[in-house]
Small-subunit processome Utp12 domain-containing protein
Amino acid sequence: MAADGLSISLNLPCVFSPKSRQYLAVCAQDGRLRVWNTDSKTLHQEYVPSAHLSATCTCVAWGPCRTVKEGPQRKRRKSEAAQVEEKADLLAMGTAAGTVLIYSTAKGSLHCTLDGGHSGGVNCVHWHPEDGLLYSGSDDTNIVEWDLQSGKTRSKWKADRAAVTSLCVSPDGKLLLSAGHVIKMWDLETKEVYRKFTGHSTAVTTLRFATTRPPDSNGLYFLSGAAHDRLLSVWQVREDGKDKNSVVSFTLTDEPQHVDLITSSSKEEAVRLAVVCKDGQLHLFEHFLNGPCKKPLSPSCSVQMSDTKDSPMPIPLLAAALGADPRSVLLAYGNHLQPVMENAEINTAERHVCLTRDIKTNLSLSMETTVSKVKTPIVNAKSKVLIPGLPGHKAPVVSAPQGTEKRKKDAGNKEMSIAEQLGEINLDASSSQKGAPKAAASLQTDNYAVLLMQGLESKDANILNKVFQTRKEVEIKKTVARLPLPAVIPLVEELTTRLQGNPLVACMMVRWLKAVLMHHTSYLASLPDLVTQLGVLYHMIESRVKMFHKLTKLHGKLHLLTTQVAANDSRNPVSDVDHTAKLVYEEESADEEEASGDEALPSEDSDHWEEEEAMQEDEGDEEDEDPDSRTEPKANGDEDMEHENESEEE
């Protein structure tokens, strides 16, 4: 069996089919399931699981091989009846929405959907080796046993306090391993816990049985790997129950991403193990499991890949499958969108092996072998190319200026090529003159629609780039409105591919997409397979909207920080200005403060009346020199006399 899908979303599921390793199933970041043929190195099938981001694939597992009827077959003879070939057919995909999708490679379509078992995202799926049963673990801490014949849950039970992140069924189909807060071994007949193990401090992503021996003989071993853990731990199921700690550990360079092993059936047979780490390296192990080993075991051989440039760059390995020959390993490397598959001969006698590959040459070879639906016609010099126009369209006739008439005479009545027409048409909105006639503007918009049709049919990047450079929304709306209905879906697909590129280009493509949705929504709603055709677009929009929420939070926090820094910087000069203003205010109001102080003196209980009156008389003599200020002391004196009389009466 191939390794079951990992529960961490960063590790994209990538699994080989069991036994023959004929297919490689990859769930890429765009949400599509791609099944590659390892023999022909070509894309076998492609499927979009869902049109919403919450239903993206989180884990993938191949079902056991079974007899598959592929198309009409001749009636077999009695001698040939025993020779029935079993092939890998069914793929189980767990989704973040809590459903399990069963895909059939023989049909090339969805076989069935298992729904209603989980209330949280599915983290792991694993098949029963014999019966048509499937087990799934979810964030809701439950394990569900599915019956594929009825498509309903056969049983459901709570596995742990935490989310179930990994599952594995024993080769005999009697035991089930589950990993949550701890690792538990379940008896599938009674659904009761058979053993408990300590587990890891982080989420367990890999569980695999290493031996096929019965648990009663102390010979049943399994291994586990976790996120952010550079060790693969091996556990022994003992009769006495003293199996809390791991007995063997394998050292890695990074957390395990893909694990493939050949199980051991006896103590004299070694377990062969191939582990692809998150850093893109492959580690090969070979060990006899016959008891505890205190020292961590290093890999017998480590494999890295690099390109053939002057400054070589590493090529990440995605998955590996062991063959019957210890030297032969099936490798998948490169990009998830288009992996390169190769049967490599590795010299396991060396501790470190570096394989150099020209990945561009391998990709070009694999692309040439694929069947292309678009055929480019052979154009000779004598052939005449007719430009496709819009049905029922007649462009308004505009009188050409004098310069163009002279140029036509000089050209000798030669027709202009498509490139010359593109050069003549000014697609920049900023260069459009205000006084241009309306007929010329409509002609230009019609040319946009014609060129857009031609670019979509021929997939000419130069023509499409010229048309998509239009920034004026009025011209975009008119161009989209004049498009015939069969060109709407190709236009949306072209916009989808361009939206995945440069963010500046995406801003321009959004305007075109908005115009398409405004004018052709009724046509799009009438398509039966719209969800499949627009699946990638939905995925991309949802992912960017989800990221936009986080970016707005970050923007708000940065805005608060910048405003606080600006307030602190502007606080010092403001305080200096206030300080100078106080000084100026005190100088201007000095006389008024003294006068108000004199008025308040009689009202206080003071024993120094004579001294205060003397000081007031001295001030009055000094102020007599100023004729403008003579009236103020008199008024103050009168007020003082009145206060004195009041105090004597009291």
